[in-house]
Specification:
The chain folds into two domains: 1-46 and 342-372, Urease, subunit C, domain 1; 48-341, TIM Barrel, CATH 3.20.20. The chain contains nine helices and 25 strands. The protein has helices at 66-78, 93-109, 144-153, 170-177, 192-201, 222-228, 246-256, 306-315, 320-334, and strands spanning 2-4, 7-10, 14-17, 20-23, 26-28, 36-38, 43-46, 48-50, 55-56, 59-60, 81-84, 87-88, 115-116, 119-121, 158-163, 182-185, 205-206, 234-238, 261-264, 276-280, 283-288, 291-293, 352-355, 361-366, 369-370. It has a seven-stranded parallel sheet. A hairpin with a 2-residue loop joins strand 21 (283-288) and strand 22. Helix 5 crosses helix 6 (222-228).
């Protein structure tokens, strides 16, 4: 296949009008013949990677439901998210084991939809004081043995684990885990010094920056300031128009630079569904428009998929190339899959999304096939 006429995203952070060549499921640098797809007036971007979301279309990864995971993967692919790393909530160990087993079986069976590229363990090693929508009854101290058991059950799919670094044993946990998975600072009451100690121990990411942590202030910069002072640290940002003010989104891209921001959706099962009553981590959630909240008003994830978050970021004034880098390049790097996807370079997987000038999806091309 050849795609002609599009403004093609380049990994260096620019758009260039050029032809894209697909040799089956792989991008190549020469014309292999076959179908020609006219993409004049479109942007061609890599398929996105969502490293932090919980569910969609009425299903949640934490359910441990094989058919539900398949439905989630199909929905994400329809929205231009070609690689997924779904997140579990704070759950009991036996349920964490179940979702890891279901994920491993899903991958082994090569079920349809977006590629299951990893698992994100958002809980249970989090702070009670900043638990947000996590179930406080199931929080526990960091446990390397549990992490490794989940890694084994999942067949190596665990790519991210969140931890509150002020918890007893957290720094030792980070030191032990950092060579195996990406450790992300999350749901934490840590101050600047504690966060810096976590990054020195090997943590390399921050889960949904600003949310479920102390604020960034001029005398107490907290996790945000510590992340900025750690050049290799990437930060997740929920850009759904609800969690983060537009001015803060713009400021974050300026502060950290487009190479360090990872756009995430943090969607829960109500994404792609009508307003109504749903659940997250065993807790009742109400969806009204773009808002998903617990009974006490606590935000309970998002209902805006990652492509919607990318579009929202651009509407806030983030350059399109920077938003694409944050939604495609950086998350792929964060979970170790950038060698095969996340850009439109020759040799990468032929996962391409064509967007019109209003950033609406025109086509999703997955493994070299037009799927929508």
């Amino acid at each position: 296949m050849k795609i002609t006429g599009a403004q093609v995203f380049e990994a260096r952070g620019a758009f260039v009008e050029r032809d894209l060549y697909l040799d089956g499921a792989i991008l190549t640098d020469h014309d292999c013949g076959g179908e020609v797809l006219d993409a004049a007036g479109c942007f061609a971007i890599p398929g996105l990677t969502d490293v932090h979301f919980h569910g969609a279309k009425g299903f949640d990864f934490s359910d441990g439901d094989a058919d539900g995971l398949a439905a989630i993967a199909e929905y994400e692919l329809s929205r231009g998210v070609t690689q997924i790393c779904p997140a579990g909530m704070t759950l009991l160990p036996e349920q964490l084991e179940k979702i890891c087993a279901v994920a491993a079986a899903h991958r082994a069976a090569k079920r349809g939809g977006a590629d299951l590229s990893g698992i994100n363990l958002e809980g249970p090693f989090l702070s009670m004081g900043k638990k947000g929508a996590q179930n406080g009854d199931w929080l526990q101290a960091p446990d390397v043995a549990l992490l490794r058991r989940l890694e084994e059950i999942s067949g190596g799919l665990v790519k991210l684990v969140s931890v509150a670094p002020e918890l007893p044993g957290a720094l030792e946990f980070i030191q032990a885990a950092a060579d195996e998975v990406t450790v992300s600072v999350a749901h934490t009451e840590a101050d600047y010094d504690t966060a810096m100690a976590a990054f020195a121990a090997g943590a390399g990411q921050v889960t949904h920056l600003y949310n479920a942590m102390k604020p960034f202030t001029h005398r107490a910069p907290g996790v945000v300031g510590a992340a900025f002072d750690t050049p290799d640290c990437r930060v997740e940002l929920i850009c759904d128009g609800v969690h983060i003010h537009p001015a803060v989104v713009r400021a974050t891209f300026k502060l950290f630079g487009a190479d360090r921001v990872i756009l995430i959706s943090d969607t829960m099962r109500a994404a792609g569904m009508e307003d109504g009553e749903y659940t997250l981590g065993g807790q009742a959630v109400t969806k009204r428009g773009k808002h998903a909240t617990l009974a006490d008003g606590t935000l309970a994830g998002s209902v805006t998929d990652l492509m919607g978050c990318l579009k929202t970021a651009v509407s806030f004034g983030v350059p399109l190339a920077d938003a694409v880098r944050a939604a495609a390049v950086n998350p792929a790097r964060a979970i170790g899959i950038y060698s095969r996807c996340g850009s439109l370079d020759s040799g990468k997987r032929a996962n391409v999304v064509l967007l019109d000038r209003d950033l609406n999806i025109r086509h999703v091309i997955f493994r070299g096939e037009v799927v929508s």
